[in-house]
C-alpha cells in the first residue's frame, strides 16, 4: 500500500464517521448538472433514465464508496450525460449522421483475459480497419475541445488512476490512443457490465441479466455512437469491436447489426479466472472502502461459466449471417500472423499486403503485449483448482481447449479429451 493510498484510507474513515459518504447520488441532480454545463436539454430518445436510477440505487445500497469512488461516480455519470446531450445536439443539427452506414462490423468476444485485446490490436495493423479509441469513448464530441487536448486529458486521467492503482498498467496496459472496449460505449445509456467491474452492485447486475431485451437499447446507442465517430471523419470504415460483455448480448447484436461478424477467442478458463479476479480487485479498490477478494473469484467464476455456456449455445445455433469464427489463445500467441490471416479468410476478406509485417512489428515492440509479470493464486480469490476445472470441463471439451500451466505447477497440464473431429468448430490457422 502506497503512502498516497494510506492517506486516502484515513480520509475515508473520517468521512464515514462524519456521514459524508452516506448520502445517495441522485439522478435528477446529476442530469441537471449536465444540462447546466452544456446549456443543452434534449437527450433525444436515449433510454437511460430507469437504468441510471437503478444503477445509482444499487451503488448506494450495495457498494461502500470511498471519497474517490463517490467523486469518480459523480464525474463519470455527468460525463456520460454530457456526451449524450452533445451527441443528440449534433445529430439534430445534422440528421445525415443517423444515415451513416455501418456495414459488417466484426465483434471480437470471449472470456476476459483470453487474448481478445491482443487480437483487437493486431487487427488494427490493417489500415482499413477502425476501432473506438480510449480517448474518443471518453470525450467523443468536438465540443470537448481539439483532439490533441482530449488525448492529453485522458492520458492525465490514466496516470492519476495509476497513482491510485499501481498494479493497473501491469494488468491492463492502455493509454489514450489504445483500442477501447465497447462497454465504455454502452455505459453511456447505463446498460453495461462495465459498472459491475468497478462496483459491487448485484441488484443492478441481476436486473440487467434478467431480460436479454434490456441490452437492445444499449446496442442501438452503440450503433449511433459509431455513426457519430465515423461521420466526423467523413470516411466509411470496417469497424472491429471488442468486449467480453458481448457474450451476454448476442441477441441484441444480431437485432441491431444483422450483418455482424463474430469472433470467439478461447482460452483455459482457469487462467482467465485468476487474472480477471485480480484485475477486478485492482479496479474496485480505489473506489470502494471494502473489497472482498475471496468472494470476487466465486462471482467471476459464476459469471464466466455462464459466458462459456452462451458460447457453446451460439456455436450450436449458428444463426448469425456468417458462421462464427473460433480462435484459440495458444494459436494466437504462437502464430499471430497466421491467426489473423485465418480470420480474414474465414470472412472472405482479402489480407492486404503489408499487414503481416505490421503485425510482426507490433509484436516485437510490445513483448507479452505490454503486460507485466503478474502472479496469481487460487487461494487469493476463494477458488479451488479442481472444482473450477470440473465446472468448466464441458466448455474445454466442446472447443478442444488445452489446459495451461497454473501457479506453482510445472509444464502444461493434460488437456481434456477433445471432441470428435465432426464436433469441432472451425479452427484458426496456425
Would you spell out the secondary-structure blueprint of this structure?
Blueprint: H1 3-17, H2 27-38, H3 49-62, H4 67-93, E1 106-110, H5 116-123, E2 129-130, H6 134-138, H7 147-164, H8 168-171, H9 183-186, H10 194-198, H11 202-209, H12 216-233, E3 238-242, H13 250-256, E4 261-266, H14 269-284, H15 293-317, E5 325-328, H16 329-334, H17 336-346, H18 355-365, H19 385-399
Parallel strand pairs: 1-3, 1-4, 2-3, 4-5
Helix pairs in contact: 2-4, 3-11, 12-13, 14-15, 15-19
Task: Explain what this protein looks like in three dimensions.
With about 425 residues, this protein is mainly α. The chain has one domain (about 5-425): Rossmann fold (3-Layer(aba) Sandwich), CATH 3.40.50.300. The chain is about 55% helix and about 5% strand. The protein contains 19 helices and 5 strands. The protein has helices at about 5-15, 25-40, 50-60, 65-95, 115-125, 135-140, 145-165, 170, 185, 195-200, 200-210, 215-235, 250-255, 270-285, 295-315, 330-335, 335-345, 355-365, 385-400, and strands at about 105-110, 130, 240, 260-265, 325-330. It has a 5-stranded parallel beta sheet with strand order 2-3-1-4-5, sandwiched between helices. Helix 12 packs across helix 13 (about 250-255).
Amino acid at each position: 500500500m502506497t503512502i498516497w493510498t494510506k492517506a486516502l484510507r484515513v480520509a475515508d474513515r473520517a468521512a464515514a464517521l462524519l456521514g459524508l459518504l452516506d448520502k445517495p447520488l441522485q439522478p435528477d441532480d446529476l442530469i441537471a448538472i449536465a444540462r447546466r454545463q452544456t446549456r443543452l436539454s434534449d437527450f433525444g430518445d436515449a433510454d437511460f433514465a430507469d437504468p441510471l436510477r437503478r444503477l445509482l440505487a444499487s451503488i448506494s445500497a450495495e457498494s461502500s464508496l470511498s471519497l474517490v469512488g463517490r467523486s469518480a461516480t459523480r464525474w463519470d455519470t455527468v460525463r456520460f450525460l454530457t456526451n449524450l446531450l452533445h451527441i443528440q445536439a449534433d445529430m439534430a443539427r445534422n440528421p445525415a449522421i443517423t444515415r451513416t452506414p455501418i456495414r459488417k462490423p466484426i465483434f471480437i468476444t470471449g472470456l476476459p483475459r483470453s487474448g481478445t485485446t491482443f487480437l483487437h490490436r493486431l487487427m488494427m495493423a490493417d489500415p482499413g480497419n477502425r476501432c473506438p479509441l480510449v480517448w474518443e469513448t471518453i470525450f467523443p464530441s468536438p465540443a470537448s475541445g481539439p483532439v490533441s487536448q482530449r488525448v492529453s486529458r485522458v492520458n492525465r486521467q490514466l496516470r492519476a488512476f495509476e497513482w491510485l492503482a499501481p498494479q493497473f498498467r501491469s494488468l491492463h496496459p492502455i493509454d489514450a490512443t489504445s483500442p477501447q472496449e465497447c462497454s465504455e460505449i454502452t455505459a453511456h445509456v447505463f446498460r453495461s457490465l462495465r459498472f459491475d467491474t468497478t462496483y459491487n452492485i448485484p441488484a443492478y447486475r441481476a436486473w440487467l441479466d434478467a431480460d436479454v431485451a434490456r441490452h437492445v437499447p444499449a446496442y442501438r446507442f452503440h450503433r449511433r455512437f459509431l455513426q457519430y465517430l465515423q461521420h466526423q471523419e467523413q470516411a466509411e470504415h470496417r469497424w472491429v469491436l471488442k468486449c467480453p460483455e458481448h457474450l451476454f448480448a448476442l441477441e441484441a447484436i444480431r437485432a441491431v447489426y444483422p450483418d455482424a461478424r463474430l469472433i470467439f477467442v478461447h482460452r483455459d478458463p482457469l487462467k482467465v479466472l485468476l487474472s480477471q479476479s485480480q484485475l477486478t480487485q485492482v479496479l474496485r479498490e480505489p473506489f470502494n472502502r471494502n473489497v472482498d477478494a475471496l468472494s470476487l473469484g466465486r462471482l467471476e467464476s459464476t459469471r464466466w461459466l455462464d459466458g462459456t455456456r452462451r458460447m457453446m449455445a451460439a456455436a450450436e445455433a449458428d444463426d448469425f449471417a456468417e458462421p462464427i469464427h473460433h480462435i484459440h489463445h495458444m494459436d494466437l500467441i504462437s502464430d499471430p500472423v497466421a491467426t489473423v490471416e485465418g480470420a480474414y479468410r474465414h470472412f472472405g476478406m482479402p489480407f492486404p499486403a503489408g499487414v503481416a509485417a505490421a503485425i510482426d512489428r507490433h509484436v516485437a515492440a510490445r513483448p507479452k503485449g505490454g503486460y507485466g509479470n503478474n502472479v496469481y493464486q487460487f487461494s487469493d480469490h476463494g477458488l479451488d483448482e479442481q472444482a473450477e476445472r470440473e465446472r468448466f470441463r464441458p466448455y474445454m471439451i466442446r472447443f478442444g481447449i488445452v489446459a495451461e500451466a497454473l501457479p506453482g505447477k510445472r509444464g502444461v497440464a493434460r488437456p481434456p479429451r477433445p471432441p470428435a473431429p465432426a464436433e469441432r468448430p472451425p479452427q484458426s490457422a496456425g
